[in-house]
Amino acid sequence: MADDWRSGGFGLYVHWPFCEAKCPYCDFNSHVSNNIDQKQWLTAYLSELRRSAVETPDRVLNTIFFGGGTPSLMDPETVAAVIGEARALWRPSNTMEITLEANPGSVEAGRFAAYRDAGVNRISMGVQALNDEDLRRLGRIHTVAEARAAFDIARDCFERVSFDLIYARQHQTLDAWRAELNDALSMAVDHLSLYQLTIEDGTAFADRYAVGKLRGLPEDDSAADMYLATQEICEKHGLPAYEVSNHARPGAESQHNLVYWRYGDYVGIGPGAHGRITVDGQKHATETQLNPQRWLDAATKGDGEKKRYVLSPKEQANEYLMMGMRISEGLDIGRWAALSGRPLSDESVDHLVGINMIERDNNRLRATPAGRAVLNAVIRELMG
Amino acid sequence: MKEQLLDSMDIERERGITIKANTVRIDYTADNGETYVLNLIDTPGHVDFAYEVSRSMRAVEGSLLVVDSTQGVEAQTLANVYQAIDADHEIVPVLNKIDLPASDCDRVAEQIEDVIGIDASDAIRVSAKTGQGIHETLEAIVHKLPAPQGTLDAPLKAMLVDSWYDAYLGVIVLVRIMDGTLKKGMRVKFMSNGTLHHVDRVGVFRPQMQMINSLGPGEIGFLTASIKQVRDTRVGDTITNDRNGTEVALPGFKPAQPVVFCGLFPVDSAEFEDLRDAIEKLALNDASFSYEMETSAALGFGFRCGFLGLLHLEVIRDRIEREYDIDLITTAPSVIYHVYMKDGAMIELHNPADMPDLSKVDHLEEPRIKATILVPDEYLGDVLKLCQDRRGIQMDLTYAGQRAMVVYDLPLNEVVFDFYDRLKSVTKGYASFDYQMTGYRQDALVKMSILVNDEPVDALSTMVHRDRAEMRGRAMCEKLKDLIPRHMFKIPIQAAIGGKVIARETLSALRKDVTAKCYGGDATRKRKLLDKQKAGKKKMRQFGKVDIPQEAFISALKMDG
Ligand SMILES: Nc1nc2c(ncn2[C@@H]2O[C@H](COP(=O)(O)OP(=O)(O)OP(=O)(O)O)[C@@H](O)[C@H]2O)c(=O)[nH]1
Ligand SMILES: [Mg+2]
Predict the structure, then answer these.
(1) Same topology between domain B260-330 and domain B337-443
(2) Residues of A in contact with B533 (CB under 8 A)
(3) B149 - beta bridge partners?
(4) For residues A156 and A149, what is the distance between their CA atoms, to the nearest angstrom?
(5) Does domain B337-443 have CATH number 3.30.70.240?
(6) Edge to edge, what strands does the sheet with B201-205 contain?
(7) Model confidence pLDDT, tens digit, residues B479-498
(8) ipTM here
(9) Axis-axis angle for helices A313-324, A333-340 (nearest 10)
């Protein structure tokens, strides 16, 4: 499948692993540290970029995404230098999307203009809740007022602004969530990531949950109701779900995340970053050193990668299925068959169509709204 | 010394019980200066293996009755003692575990006298843990138990006590010599079928195997004779010289008959041949375990297997799963019903799925048992209720001190499944239970089918009493509703007799199962997670589009009340 990745495009993910505080629900690779030598980090990023570019020559680079951690703690100069190097190493697309994740605090907002000048053209803010009590419960260090102020500054600086909210939180009712979501939609936002609170292994929430100290989480059924309400409200406001948890005004979808969901290629640099890159016609999964210091030492020497393996046809097909079914454009049946070496089971497809979990038209499969709510079950049924 | 020296099977060690009787020979120099050769057999206690006990009793002259002095007499103690009495044994009572603070030897000795009716005034007080009283026990064996009789220069007369397959030596035949001598190199005749064998090896267990040249009267040991299959040896057979042998064979044993049947199916139908292989191997060493091939519309190919009881069933199932690494679906255990047809014929029904068309059936009979239960009197009410709920008829109720002994006439099918578990749970573990088959009796029995998503699942069919059908049906539907995971669609679960639905539940559809975040960095982990879930799904059986977990086939039948 030498050129399969072209159907999904090519993106670059840059991981900044530091945060001012660790959030209790977050299972990302993030650390709290107060002596970070930004120059040294930049050197490491640049050497990793060069190493990756050698393997993926002559490609058009569609997107860059700075994720974390809290990349809004990066010096704008560091961001600028990374972007500059990427532009030099690959062929930048004319409409290259460059996103940076930001904490909606006042200090960060003060740097927004500088990020814009560095080349960032889209910002994604971790607002998480529009109520101070819940922000505190979620371990966030900003307030709603700060977030709103940061949002206004972002709106001035960037053409495209998105923010995240977490719902199905402790003690949250369906009505409270409806109101909060309507509130969010009344802001001049063109993209929202709306995540159901998930208790991830290895987080503080998971520990509390295990000992029964995380009370008031909604039951499955009311979580399902919240999910459906979310779809309906966003749709009504012109931000339909284009992915399980992502909503956008048509045209404002995250191009970078679509690379993942369309199962394109992506280079991942920074501690613990994953990549999928096609080299010599074979799709590889890559993974860098997880520990920031270890990564820094290795990456400075141009050796930040810890693990790499060739994905089998079955693994590729399952990944494409898992990703592709998340988005409203759905899965290309022919592409799936080419990846896996066999067609999707007619029996499974017919069954899922019959119970209204998916729709099939022409050469594509799409999850229906009901199917999307139980997407894991749909995927398991279709998996090879 | 190593713990559980004789309980050497994994299952025995894990469960802390004896399943297979084992022999040991020791040389003991008694206080009088003489050295005695003692031939000992350790037998299981559990009712399922009563057969092991009865044949062992026939191979020896006397018994040590070991009673836990912290617990007292149990129902199985009774059954085993009565076997020893039947075998004309001298019985030496031993009170064990005197090292424990809860030990109460006087009370237990009194109980032995009251409940069993044997003199316990000289009972030896022992701690197998500290060794206290062991010397006295060995002296008692020498002085109280009769020495074996037998004539050395008579023709060989040996009892075939047991046999099993050993990968290195072939079939090993455990024998007790009654008369004459068994020598390495001689030719012997198995009297039941007249087959002749050349004896390759003769030996004893100490408890490890030790080869010797010959065995004489009163001795227990083994022979090997290039016998390929355990089936070629019959337990209870008489072994003699090939020429001029004994005229009179020993009375022999009644072979143990399986009484509980269930289907064993591989979860993965590709493993059918492996399962066949495993079952054949296990059956080689266990004559009381029977099997025949079975096909189920729902489960595909498998085996209908017969067992001595539920523990036996569990043991075999565990061994297949563990020693042969095959995941199994076990269907509802059943007993053998006698189906009398209108044309006068009688059919033995081992599997409810094979129940003939009702219009042709005249009536059914089911096996009954006599159950003996010993229980502290504070729990007696719960035990009576349990027996009553299971269609029991009280036959006797007596007291010995604080303990009651109840005897019930019960249908075996009410007992095979979870009776013992329920009994233990309503009495906090204090009741003990033993039973014996008594015969067949007519009753109003019907076949109850279970329909999942409108399709009958034959492996869940059971025979029930008409009066209890609705309650059982409701209980099974409720259980299945909990056991079957939610699917993307709602699933009706029904119990029916003939075409008539008698209970119904609906398993509502799954509403939410989606990963909130899935980006580039999550791909590997989330894919692996789905892979694992998919593998879990494959461990379930599909009925139409419904996945039923393997444990559901058994758990659905468990009754809480
Ligand atoms: N404290 C103490 N524990 C003992 C003594 N004798 C046996 N036990 C323990 O009691 C348990 C049962 O012992 P077993 O020898 O397996 O009993 P058993 O009568 O052979 O049991 P079955 O073969 O299943 O009928 C084990 O946990 C032993 O360690 C003793 O004298 N003192
Ligand atoms: Mg034992």
Answers:
(1) yes
(2) 376, 380
(3) none
(4) 11
(5) yes
(6) B195-198, B187-190, B238-241, B157-166, B170-179, B220-224, B201-205, B209-212
(7) 999 999 999 999 999 999 98
(8) 0.94
(9) 160
pLDDT at A377 over 90: yes
Which H or E run includes A60? strand A60-68
CA dihedral (B166, B171, B172, B174) in degrees, to 10, reads 140
Strand ranges across the sheet with A60-68: A241-243, A246-248, A191-196, A160-167, A122-128, A91-102, A60-68, A10-16, A265-269, A274-279, A282-288, A305-310
What's the rounded Cα separation, in Å, for the pair A230 and A374? 15
More confident call, B357 vs A52: A52
B97 CA to centre of ligand 1 in angstroms = 8
How far B515 CA lies from chain A's nearest CA (Å)? 7
Which residue from B64, B97, B311 has its CB within 8 A of the most atoms of ligand 1, so it is best to mutate?
A: B97
Whether CATH 1.10.10.10 fits B10-144: no
- Residue pair A270/A288 in contact (Cβ under 8 Å)? The answer is yes
Rounded to 10°, the helix A174-186/A220-236 angle is 30
Would the pLDDT of B235 be above 90?
no
pLDDT tens-digit map of B258-313: 888 999 999 888 999 999 999 988 887 777 889 999 988 778 899 999 998 878 88
Cα–Cα distance measured from residue B449 to residue B458, given in angstroms and rounded to the nearest whole number: 7
Quickly tell me which residue has 């840059």 as its tokens: A14
Sketch the domain layout of chain B as residue ranges.
Answer: 10-144, 157-241, 260-330, 337-443, 446-557
| Lowest-confidence pick of A160-164, A211-215, B205-209, B436-440 | A211-215
Which two three-digit tokens encode residue B90?
């001298």
Q: Who surrounds ion ligand 2 at CB < 5 A?
A: B 18
Nearest CA to ligand 1 atom 32: B97
3-state SS, B395-434, equals EEEEEECCEEEEEEEEEHHHHCCCHHHHHHHHCCCCCEEE
Whether B530 and A223 lie within 8 Å, measured CB to CB: no
Evaluate whether B258 touches B306 at the Cβ level (below 8 Å). yes
Q: Kindly state if the Cβ of B100 falls inside 6 Å of ligand 1.
A: yes
Q: Is residue B289 within 8 Å of B312, Cβ to Cβ? A: yes
Q: Return the residue matching tokens 């898992």.
A: A322
CA of B209 to the centre of ligand 2 (A): 20
Which of A330-344, B92-106, B223-237 is predicted with the least confidence, judged by mean pLDDT? Answer: B223-237
Q: φ and ψ at B369, to 5 degrees?
A: -130, 160
Cα B93 from Cα B90, distance rounded (Å): 10
3-state secondary structure of B7: coil
List, in sequence order, every residue forming a beta bridge with A10; answer none if it has no partner: A265
Query: What local confidence, expressed as pLDDT, does residue B553 receive?
Result: 81
**Whole-angstrom Cα distance, residue B303 to residue B293?**
4
- Number of C-beta neighbours around residue B32 at 10 A: 9
State the fold for domain B446-557.
Answer: Alpha-Beta Plaits (3.30.70)
Is it true that domain B157-241 has CATH number 2.40.30.10? Answer: yes
In sequence order, what E strands does B454-536 have?
A: 455-456, 462-465, 491-497, 500-507
Q: Which residue has the higher pLDDT, B191 or B115?
A: B191
Q: Which helix (H) or strand (E) holds B164?
A: strand B157-166
Asked if residue B547 lies in contact with residue B457, where contact means CB atoms within 8 angstroms, the answer is no
Distance from C-alpha of B60 to C-alpha of B219, rounded to nearest angstrom = 9
Instruction: Please determine, looking at this structure, whether the domain spanning B260-330 carries the CATH number 3.30.70.870.
Output: yes
What's the pTM value of the predicted model, to 2 decimals? 0.73
Q: Which residues of A touch B521 (CB under 8 A)?
A: 13, 15, 28, 268, 272-274
Q: Whose CA is nearest to atom 27 of ligand 1?
A: B16
* Nearest residue to B276 via CA among B331, B328, B335: B328
Query: Buried b vs exposed e over B288-327: b needs ≥16 C-beta within 10 Å?
Result: bbbbeebebebbeebbbbbbbbbbbbbbbbebbbeebebe
